[in-house]
Structures are given as C-alpha cells and as structure tokens.
Amino acid sequence: MDHDHVRAVDPAVADALSAEASRQQNTLAMIASENHASEAVLEAQGSALTNKYAEGYPGERYYAGCEFADEVERLAISRAKELWGAEHVNVQPHSGTQANMGVYLAILDPGDRILSLDLTHGGHLSHGHPANFAGKLYDVEHYEVDPETGYVDYEGLRETAEAFDPDIVVSGYSAYPRVVDFERIQEAADVADAYHLADIAHITGLVAAGVHPSPVGIADFVTGSTHKTIRAGRGGIIMTDDEHADAIDAAIFPGAQGGPLMHNVAGKAVGFAEALEPEFEAYASRIVENARALGDALEAEGLSLVSEGTDTHLVLCDLRESHPETTGGDAESALQDVGIVLNKNTVPGETRSPFNPSGIRAGTAALTTRGFEAEACREVGELIAHVVNDPDDADVRGEVAEEVDRLCAAHPIYE
Ligand code: DSN
Predict the structure, then answer these.
(1) Could you tell me if residue 15 is inside a domain?
(2) In this structure, is residue 9 part of a structural domain?
(3) pTM of the model
(4) Is residue 2 predicted with pLDDT exceeding 90?
(5) What's the domain range around 88?
(6) Number of C-alpha atoms within 13 angstroms, CB side, residue 216?
C-alpha cells in the first residue's frame, strides 16, 4: 500500500501507514477482536462519504445532499436484515460500545439495574464496569462462569436474576470460548421480567453464517460490532423488533451521537455484501475449525484452556497452573517479539490484575481471512507454546520468529 496522496502531504503519517500495513503482513494478528477487511471495504471507508454530514435516517435527514448517503445506509440496513434476520436494524453506532449505549439509553433510566457477566469472566467494559459510563450510570450486578467448567453458570444467573431483579440482562461476551445458550439467558431475564440484550460483537460473523446459534428473535436487543468476525467496515450495529425501533433510533441519534460516520456505514454495506456471498459460510466454519486446531495444539503442549476448548473463534489460556511465574503480559510481550500478536487477558477467578492478568486470548478470524487452514493453526499453537514455555530463551525466539516469517510470507493479506 503506497499511500501516495498522503505521502505528498504528510510523509510522516504515510510512513506510519505503510509500516502498519507491513506490520500486519509480517505478523500474525491473533487479537480475537481483529480481522483483515477486504480492499473493497477499505476503499469504501476511505471514500468521499467521509465528508458528508447526514444526521437523521434515510429519507429523514437534517441536511441536504444526502441522496447517496441514503442509498448506502439503506443498502447496509437491508443486507444486515438479510444476514441476521432482524426486523429493525440501526447501522449508525460508531462502535459496539456505542451500540450498547443506544440500547441502555432507549430503555433504562439512570440507576436502573443491569445484570451482566463479570469482566474477568469474559464480559465487556460496556456491560457495566465501574470505569465505564455503564458502571457509573446504572446499578450493576454480575453473574459468572462456573469455576470448574468455565461455562456460563446459567443456574447461578437465574438465582441472581431472582434476587437482584434487574431491568436488563446482558449476554454476549468478549472472552468466552463456548456457545452461548441465549434461550437460557432469556429464561433468567423472564424470571425478573427484564429486557435481554445479546451483545454478539465477537461472534457476529459466526451467527450470520449459522455457525453459532442466533439470539435474534429471542433477545429484545442484539448489538454487535461490524469489523470482527463479520469482517465489514469498522463500527457497531443494533438489531431489534419493530416495537423498539423508534426508541433505538432516537437513542442513537440524537440521543448518543451526532452525524453518523457515513464512510464507515459504506464499509459496513460492502462487508455485509461480501458476507452474503456463499463463501462466507465456509469462512466462518473454518474460523471455528482453526480455533479448535489452535486450542488442541496448545493443550497438547501443556497449556490449559478455560473450558478446555472452544466452540468459537477464540481460545483463552489460563497460565496460572502450567506457568505460575509467567503473567499474561510476559507471554504477550514475548510473543509480540516473534511476530505473534495476541493479548493478555483476565481469566475467571483472576488472582492478578486486569493490567497484568494471568491469561492470554487468541483468535483465528484474521488468520483464516489470510488463508490459514487447521494444520497451519496447529503449528501456530505449537509456536505459541514454545515461546510461552521458554519466554526468555533467545534461541527459541529466533527459531519461532523464522517460522512466523515463513507463515506470513505464505499467506499474503492483500495482493
Ligand atoms: N476491544 C474488543 C476486544 O478485544 O474484545 C472489545 O471491544
């Protein structure tokens, strides 16, 4: 990627952009929330729509000149409806967090009660962490995963719902490797006569492809981000039924946001069109097969996986028993040195801190995009384990870095 126009104006930024493209090509992107958008999506996001203000919704804008913005947004909405089967879709949230904010604003008052999965058990900041607006504005209680199995403790959730009487129960997670049973979450929400928000940010692509069960038609609200497993333009999305459509739209604009990022809406439309192609289903299935192969290799090399495996795009390793002296941060930084980019992560029952937690999280969506198959993912699992087993051994790092170079060269991201 040359960035010729940027270079003519701003060589420093052009250098950084080129370096970032090379970094992505020459390393393995295994942060479970990342992916490699297609060149078509990148082009849409870098289009003239970045210049356009379009407050409002298609056909009802506050500014003139929105005819093409309308066309793009309508396409994004209709494709999303086809992908996920929702009655109503809002494609304007700037991010997944903004999508969750839209839902809370639409139906909660400050002080209302949210019941969500604890962050250290796989939840998300926007589900009510004290440092996030959701934790500051609302009264938050958490449910957890079963410490023995690593699966959501659905019975505990139900009991907490009875005792806490939440206004909304949040499902959908950012570090949970197993299938979410949305029906059982709905039962817990019903016990408290609460709304149910399913935040499928991580698994949007898996749900669209039918590789993971869908909460659409079960939960009152489904939110997500659009750049993770669904691989479209960056941002967020809200899905709901016709009954809540107006409340959601008003909560996003004018409630939480001003002008929508129409270039990103264009990126969403293009990515959704790609996901409607038959190949996407095979892509989503391969993501899961690859995560299983990665997890099997890690386990075979002595690392322990939360819930002992995965049904999704990610694995979560708890290093405490196998590597008591190695923190998630130590592992993350040793792996970054060899070109494997994943993230340190809290684990259920975390005994360290969120900034220096005891686990690492790795996903396969981006590797799958660049053509990795199960065998290559098994090899990546072995490479990760070699580094985590000997994080300070320069010879091991050198050998692994060479293998990573070879794998990257064999799997170009962009032509
Ligand atoms: N930052 C994302 C993740 O890594 O899960 C969620 O917003």
Answers:
(1) no
(2) no
(3) 0.97
(4) no
(5) 43-275
(6) 26
Identify the domain boundary among 250, 275, 300. Answer: 275
Asked whether residue 176 carries a pLDDT value surpassing 90, the answer given is: yes
Ligand 1: residue of 202, 204, 226, 229 to mutate (most ligand atoms within 8 A of CB) is 202
pLDDT at 354: 85
Residue 28 CA to ligand 1 center (angstroms) comes to 17
* Residue nearest atom 2 of ligand 1, based on CA coordinates: 33
Residues 104 and 231 in one domain: yes
Residue nearest to atom 5 of ligand 1 (CA): 174
Q: Which of 206, 199, 215 is nearest to 101 (CA)?
A: 199
Residue 415's pLDDT is what?
Answer: 82
Query: Tens of pLDDT along 88-114?
Result: 999 999 999 999 999 999 999 999 999
Nearest CA, atom 1, ligand 1: 33
Same domain, yes or no: 287 and 257? no
End-of-domain residue from the set 227, 257, 275: 275
In a domain, 52, yes or no: yes
Question: How many domains are there within the chain?
Answer: 2
Mind listing the pLDDT tens digit for each residue in 227-249? 999 999 999 999 999 999 999 99
CA–centroid distance, 407 to ligand 1, in Å, is 25
Average the pLDDT over 339-354 and give the result: 95
Claim to verify: residue 230 and residue 170 sit in the same structural domain: yes
